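Changelog-linked ticket: zinc ion example.
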Amino acid sequence: MQRRRFLAATAATFPLWRLRGALRRVDGPPASVAIPFDLARVRLHPGPFLDAAEVNRRFLTGLDPDRLLHTFRLTAGLPTTAEPLGGWEAPENELRGHYTGHYLSACALAWAGSGDGELKARGERIVAELARCQQALGGGGYLSAFPEEFFDRLRAGRPVWAPFYTVHKIMAGLLDMHTLAGSTQALEVLRGMARWTDRWTQPLGDAAMARVLEREFGGMDEVLYNLAAATGDDGYREVARRFDHERIYGPLAAGRDELKGLHVNTTIPKIIGAARRWELTGEPRYRSVAEYFWREVTTRRAYCTGGTSNGEGWNADPGVLASELSGYTQECCTSYNMLKLTRHVFQWTAEPAAADYAERLLFNGILGTQHPRDGSKLYYVPLASGYWKLFGTPLHDFWCCTGTASESFAKLGEQLYFHDDDGVWVNQFVASEVDWAERGVRLVQETRFPLEAATAVVVRAARPTRFALRVRVPGWSRGGSASLNGRPLDGFAAPGGYYVLERTWREGDRLAVSLPMRLAACAMPDDPALQAVTYGPLILVGRLGTDGLTPATIRAEPTRPRTVPEYKLDPVPAPALRARSADPATWIERVASGQDAAGTPPLEFRTVGQERDVSLVPFHTLFDERYAVYWRVTT
Ligand SMILES: [Zn+2]
């Protein structure tokens, strides 16, 4: 019954041809043009994405569940002898418990994405202990690592950090443990928390609730909409709606960018909440909010990396970015959340620009933001010249970004493939396979991208099957081509589109696509001489040496309550560059420096003809060294 009502609401507001696939489908969001494959259908194969997932796995398995439960047990009055964690998980920190929620999500995602039974078991153990804590806290559904009194402060307008933000992470972790790892206990605990949330918010009038919403609350509406979708219980939608932040939505629905002055990572989750409201109710206003926001941020408020935010805020008018470079740009949580929103936008539109953007952010906002040695995470991606990646340590920080990165690296497969009834979109070039079980087809992607500018999709099918294979032709590519089973194919799609081949596919068919990369300049919209350099989707960073970087300065200090990492050294300037033309190929060249074990040359470049030449490498491959992303280039 719920589904019929929903479709009726949607059909009135959405072109019918776009509903064709959705009307036949029970599981996908009804507004979907492109349906993402469940993480459990995608497996990463050896390559930089799988390497990163493995580093994160070691980071996650290095954490002791009893330490992650310590402050929950303290708050519930249950015995605990575990050594407290540090940073934002320290017993005196008002955000304590948030990381345990992220950890549950990461365990569930790792189980879905790689079948990691050890992490699933850890997640289940933590869920069981959280259920005990919830009981010990009175059985009214409240569950947190801090006392309910924090919420009294929130209601009274007294100082408190962000209690709903923290509770949201726990609720989202429980929901992921339920939907991805099948935990019924997680759903029970979550239902209790949702009941408590309903009771707490229900008596508040609009004015009081509006005051509550001014305090960062994460994705409370999103998780409650998701709970409504997972259970079919519409009551949760009503609770979710109380967290829909009209002060933020109003201007966006009217097509006005009033984002200046807002805290970026407080805002993006609210937009994801609007996206879920559209998907569940078909109310077009909420799609407008999300789509306008997405376009505005990705085209006018994003750096060349795809990232956004400076000092965690939008401090300037749209298109003003040259003055927004610092050591505290591009908070990693914002990349996590923009990728999440982008996945929704692609579902509604199948727009290649959304997949291009996701690629930019995957390489320049996610990969390369954990340390390959111990999996420590990054808080900010510095975009002013001469800084370095200031990683935390595994046990002493537990920033917001430690949490979102723990999830990001456990779900690297989720942006790769989408489908409708007629075919599959291959959006990202990552060695992997996807199981399209409904059609009895597996697609295996063989690629060393981005080391090689090409990919190949091999079809595994017990019997011949007709469908369309749609391979993204990125906006950055020039002169691509395709071949089928070794024979060149005529015609190719223009950059910023899809190469579509619809045919009856047979076991072993191999579609190979070449996507030549080139050097390109990416200028600041408000200062064209300030430029970054890209090679394909990769930002190339100039290596500025290790001056002053020691074990004591290269990592963030253990974080005290409410502090963020700080650099203990000044940045160093990047040299200004002279160019003969606007084409960076006139001042940068690729360095021929041998081959790796598979015979592929590394991605290394250097400037030429400068007073002081600098070597450049992709952002995601550089660690423990100062770097420059933007250069002042005089032509
Ligand atoms: Zn963060």
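Closing comment: Example verified and attached. The radius of gyration is 24 Å. Residues 117-136 form the longest helix (20 residues).
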